[in-house]
Amino acid sequence: MFIRKWTTSSNVKGKIIIVHGLGEHSGRYEELASFLSKHGFVVYATDNEGHGVDPVPYGAAKKLSNSIKRIEALANMAKNEPPDVPFFLMGHSLGGLISIRLLEQSPTLFKAAILSSPPLKSYRDDLKSLYHGFLALSYIVPFLRLSNRIDPSKISKNDKVNRFYTLEPTVHDRISIGFFIDLERQINLSWKDIGRIDCPILMTYGSEDEVVSTASIEDFYNALSVKKKIKCFEGSKHEPYRDLDVKEKYFSTILDFLISWL
């Protein structure tokens, strides 16, 4: 497993895994990870299957569940490095859904978690009859890759970030039929198993996010029965931390939440 690790020169306060989203890679979280490491956190990240430097071709991952297992393996490795400090989880977009499913499957693994712009609305209604065609194809050609249909202009208010998103060779727009069907399954399971989440949660999103359903994020937050906070960044799109006028506030929101659970 490829692992990125950001260490801290100060006394270690805690450790955190950051889980990236669809089509991107863990290196896009360098700035956030460096910020947290400067404030006493050891940060871990890896590239999900079919992303970044992973050997599986871009978008050819057959199941989302494989990435959930990968993050669980990273967590089991990192939980004792260093020992005896609080262990946190953060996921953005698809990484937020991966984080939710891991919290539901391993409720005692993390002290608290941050869920940033997770996809929580079923795609079945939007695709209607196409969904059943995809379901049939998933048994025949699960590795068939299609566009994930993420519009780069909807990533951020920062046009420079959006342009780089389209040019960066380790960012892609591919998703396999099998992965899409399992994504739908994991979204449904995230709601079914929500009662298994047993740690404090911070949920964040941008008010102008058109990549995921902000209403579903609010609904999921309201359905949580644990200690929780939610933060909407007004005027921001899918990645609020890329906006120059929001980044500092976003980073402070994350840090303040982590410190509150040390």
Kindly summarize this structure in a few lines.
With 262 residues, the protein is of the alpha/beta class.
Name a few traits of the molecule.
alpha/beta; 262 residues; 16% strand; 7-stranded mixed β-sheet; Rossmann fold; single chain; two-stranded antiparallel ribbon; 9 helices
What would you note in describing this structure?
This protein has 262 residues and is an alpha/beta fold. It has a single domain, classed as Rossmann fold. 39% of the residues lie in helices and 16% in strands. It is built from 9 helices and 9 strands. It has helices spanning 30-38, 64-78, 94-105, 124-127, 129-140, 159-167, 177-192, 214-223, 247-260; strands at residues 4-6, 14-19, 41-45, 87-92, 112-116, 145-147, 174-176, 201-206, 228-233. Strands 1-3-2-4-5-8-9 form a 7-stranded mixed sheet, with helices on both faces. A two-stranded antiparallel sheet has the order 6-7. Strand 2 (14-19), helix 1 (30-38) and strand 3 form a beta-alpha-beta unit. The longest helix is centred in the last third of the chain and has 16 residues, at 177-192. The protein is globular and about 55 Å long. The mean pLDDT is 94.
